[in-house]
Write a structure and sequence with these properties.
alpha+beta, 4 helices, four-stranded antiparallel sheet, 164 residues
């Protein structure tokens, strides 16, 4: 039984590290190769690579807040939330594997963005998609991890409710 616990914990930390690593490597490449506010068409004008430093949250919300309040709301509160989620994932053995995977993606994505805020004072965003009815703001791989993780968690909840 102890071996299963170790394997499960290792699996969780590998997933988190993979998400943080993908995020940080992609942001590092963008910071080094794409000028600030440069727009590079990757696929026509549907997929754009850029380099924007976001000092706020989602879509820049809160960018104009006083520094102390911004640090609390955009770094400390998310770090506490991620810590609670990590505690739940590590201690609740009855969580479905899909929920563990989804929550690990969320933890990894959140950690990547918090790391940026602490290390750089902002979060590097660099992708923009516009496919007509499907149009995004500018985002990064941490945001992708969080959204994919939320999708997996919601799907796990739906499956659980459908089976009940």
């Amino acid at each position: 039984m102890q071996t299963n616990k170790i394997i499960r914990t290792l699996f969780i930390f590998i997933l988190i590290a993979a998400n943080v690593g993908c995020d940080q490597i992609s942001k590092s490449i963008v910071r080094e190769t794409v000028d600030r506010s440069e727009w590079i068409e990757v696929y026509h004008d549907n997929l754009i690579l850029t380099n924007v430093e976001n000092t706020g949250a989602f879509f820049g919300l809160g960018a104009d807040m006083p520094p102390m309040l911004k640090n609390i709301l955009l770094s400390l509160v998310p770090a506490l939330a991620i810590s609670v989620i990590l505690f739940v994932v590590l201690t609740r053995r009855q969580l479905p594997r899909s929920a563990v995977v989804g929550l690990s993606f969320i933890i990894g994505g959140g950690t990547g963005n918090i790391f940026d805020r602490i290390a750089y004072g902002s979060v590097t965003d660099f992708l923009h998609m516009d496919f007509g009815v499907f149009k995004t703001g500018i985002f990064n791989m941490a945001d992708v991890s969080i959204m994919v993780g939320m999708g997996i968690v919601l799907l796990a909840m739906y499956k659980r409710d459908a089976a009940a």
